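Slack export, channel: ligand-projects

TW: morning all. Re-posting the request from yesterday since it got buried. We need the structure predicted with the small molecule present, not the apo form. The ligand is fe (ii) ion; the SMILES is in the block with the sequence. No rush, but it would help planning for next week.
GE: picking it up
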Amino acid sequence: MAITVQPNENAAGAVVTDVDLAALDDGTWAEVYGAFLTHGVLVFPGQHLDEEAQGAFARRFGNVEKLYPGQDRATLHFGNVKADGKLTRPGDESFKLLRGNEGWHTDSTYMPLAAKASMLMALVVPAEGGGTEFADMRAAYDALDRAMQEKLEGLSAYHSLYHSQARAGFAHNTDHMYGFHDKGAPLRPVIKTHPETGRKSLYTGRHAYRIEGMDPDASLALLDGLMDDACQPPRTYLHAWTVGDLAVWDNRCMMHRAQPYDTSQPRVLRASRVAGEPESELAPTFADPKADAFRPTSSNESALTAGKSPKEPDVYA
Ligand SMILES: [Fe+2]
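GE: finished. pasting the full token output, ligand included:
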């Protein structure tokens, strides 16, 4: 039976039903992937996948991006509940990232190799808030006037998690968590052409902090203005999670952000991040003034030494 893809009304993305992601044959996978490319974000209600099934679904999209040294699974727990069962509190490193993630972004643009896709499945949800909101940057590009499209064509911006977190009010040390590295700030095009669909999109978000060749303040003003205009209805979609829902989105053309919630309540999702193809998602890096050092590399792999026991953090940017 064919899957049912219902585009969200006056909003981005689509809801997919009549599919069991734990038992996906190749024909059905092709339909799902086609819908993913068309709609940018897909929500699959009530899937309740176990780790293995979610991992297998994530690997359909490509290679898994490893977010901590020694990661051997395709899935990670993501949320405000720590390994000891206690809730993350203000001042914790992970709390800073949770707050930062409430700004519009696309995943891993601050790494040499940006992410292709990201996936979340809801395990524990708060009574109110804590949704995930998406914005379609293809539609945002299409909505720009011709003069602005021409102005942006050919511009590139530096991306850095230190900078986005600093703007959110948080400082971080080099190399203590994924993203806070000495690999340099990737320089990425402001207008991205999707490697599979060929569609153009606005590709900036909170990690983009300076446009090459432009005054820093003027850069930020331009970048902020673009995102303010871009992330508006009908290009957005806020998904209010129900336990068991799974969402997957295309980081190459969609922005997302976390909706605030009462952090005295637990919120746990199971995440998977799929690495970009180097042909289209690998960017050159340049010294990041907020990092302790600059050791350029095209690898996302953590420089954390094996001597420090690798541990899975609760939260990632
Ligand atoms: Fe994210």
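GE: first-pass observations. Residues 101, 105, 107, 256 surround fe (ii) ion (CB under 6 Å). The first strand starts at residue 4 and ends at 7.
TW: perfect, thank you
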